[in-house]
Design a protein that fits this description.
single chain; alpha/beta; TIM Barrel; Lyase, Ornithine Decarboxylase, Chain A, domain 1; eight-stranded parallel barrel; five-stranded antiparallel beta sheet; about 30% helix
Length: about 375
């Protein structure tokens, strides 16, 4: 549902690269990749070649995609590679992102391998700068046995409805595409932007489509967070003229649950957890949960008597977290929730408590909450 909602907002002329890196933001890359392929994703984005290998093997195991037919997605390795990973890229038909001459030299033995060039237009991480550096990189690709399948950039202020920096990045990317056009190179894909870029109604989508068409390519955007049911607020999107496009249609995917390990009663004055940061003001009934910060339940959700923390859901009721969250154990208040017993289901993320709730308490973003959930 989230993939289709995002694709609708991006428009029929724009392909979607579904980002499953970082273990699909904590959701399980192998499972999510197969589901996204069924939903129509033609491209998947992974962190590294090792993750790409696992995703490719998962896709190969899905019966309707066996044999490498047209429904099998391409896999883009988004965060670079090292020389000893080239064989893995080849063996599992992975498409690497490149941005320097050293990477091209590592791939020289890979005849016909597709590559995507990342252009740094202002992010300041990976990518080649437009101008002389890009010129040299394009020359090297043109003289090699590699295929320039795509060229892209990444915006650093996608959550701003009227970002001057985004406008500058667009201009720099236009200059980079002009260099590609001058070389008469024919990439299949030109892509830019993430979930927030599409959610941001101030972004000029005809611009990306027209830019891609100028080199005979197709436009593509990369969706990550939106696939899993979340989006960041768009700054400046509080007027009736600027409203998010995707956010209203999204539904969180992850349900993270545990079970009650034990029940106990506290007397008034009893303390809870390391540092005794919570003292029972009256008799209370509490539940012990076998989950803690080692599992991804952030320590910032801890509470004191004067500062409320996070909560979990038990029998459709909120159960407040008491005291400090430990490495593998957490205490919650079940006073007034009838019949709670060992073995009962507890919702850590799902109905009644979201990654946005956790992120607000932990002073972070939903990305970090979702990616932080451990497999245990």
């Amino acid at each position: 549902m989230n993939f289709r909602a995002f694709a609708k907002a991006a428009g029929a002329a724009t392909e979607i690269l579904a980002v499953v890196k970082a273990n699909a933001y904590g959701h399980g890359a192998e499972v999510c990749s197969a589901m996204l392929a069924r939903a129509g994703a033609r491209w998947l984005g992974v962190t590294c070649s090792n993750e790409g290998m696992r995703v490719r093997q998962a896709l190969d195991a899905v019966e309707f995609m066996r044999g490498g037919d047209e429904s099998t997605p391409e896999i883009l390795v988004m965060c670079g590679f090292l020389s000893d990973e080239v064989a893995m890229l080849q063996e599992h038909a992975l498409t690497p992102v490149v941005w320097n001459l050293e990477q091209i030299s590592w791939l020289q033995s890979s005849s016909g391998m597709k590559v995507h060039v990342e252009v740094d237009t202002g992010m300041g991480r990976q990518g080649v700068e437009p101008g002389q550096a890009l010129e040299e990189l394009l020359n090297e690709i043109a003289s090699s046995r590699l295929s320039l399948d795509g060229i892209f950039t990444h915006f650093c202020e996608s959550e701003s409805a009227h970002s001057e920096l985004t406008q500058t990045q667009e201009q720099r990317f236009e200059a980079a595409i002009a260099q590609v056009r001058a070389k008469e190179l024919k990439p299949s894909w030109v892509h830019a932007g993430n979930s927030s870029t599409v959610d941001n109604p101030a972004q000029p989508w005809p611009w990306l489509v027209q830019l891609a068409e100028s080199v005979g390519a197709h436009a593509m955007v990369r969706s990550g967070l939106a696939l899993y049911g979340y989006s960041l607020p768009i700054d400046g999107a509080d007027s009736s003229l600027v409203q998010p496009q995707v956010r209203p249609a999204l539904r969180p995917v992850m349900q993270w649950k545990t079970r009650v390990l034990a029940i106990r009663d506290l007397a008034a004055g009893d303390t809870v957890g390391y540092g005794a940061t919570f003292t029972a003001p009256a008799p209370m009934r509490v539940a012990l949960l076998p989950v803690g910060y080692a599992d991804g339940l952030r320590r910032e959700l801890s509470s004191t008597n004067s500062k409320p923390g996070g909560w979990v859901m038990i029998a459709d009721h909120r159960a407040a977290i008491l005291g400090r969250i430990s490495m593998n154990l957490t205490v919650v208040d079940v006073t007034g929730i009838d019949g709670v017993a060992a073995g009962d289901e507890v919702v850590l993320l799902g109905d009644g408590v979201t990654a946005e709730d956790h992120a607000q308490l932990a002073a972070t973003i939903p990305y970090e909450i979702l990616c932080g959930v451990r497999e245990r």
